[in-house]
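Predict the 3D structure for this chain.
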Amino acid sequence: MNIDWNDAPEGATHFSPGNKDRSKYQAWWKPIAPGSSKYQCWAVGTSFGCGGWQPGPFGLPENAVKREWTGEGLPPVGTVCEYLWQWSDKIVYVRVKVLSHDEERAQFRVIQGGGIGSLRECNQRLEDGLPMFRPIRTPEQIAAEERLKAIDEMAAVYKSNYEGHVKDGCQALYDAGYRLQVKP
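Done. Predicted structure below.
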């Protein structure tokens, strides 16, 4: 099912396509309060509720599809994501689960990485241009980041040793430990 989240009313966290058993109309859903398990409904294609939120509390339909968090703003309650953890001079991302939040701060528990089990609270500020919270990266994203980092490192070695000849730059790369990896 393709859902155009650009059509969603502000605050919508879920969409249900509707069915004949519970609600035959499509609807957008949002929690009645941050972290609540009860929801408000915005019905689509009906005069009942069309054009506004119907105050709940309603239970979320089983067929409701959750909006994926893109990394913008604070992660929704229950989201498992990465958090920028800083120890003295080392900055790493650890995996956390968001327990609650308001408009400015999120409370979370570290579930993987340094400080496991720690309960913390933080806002969505940027640290050295890095987001405090980000979605968990896929293996493809990690490989692409590692590739770009290696290319940047090779370019720095090449640039600092290149004196007008390609051979000099290649020798510098070889001396720095870069080798052709032949796959079987």
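The chain is about 20% helix and 35% strand.
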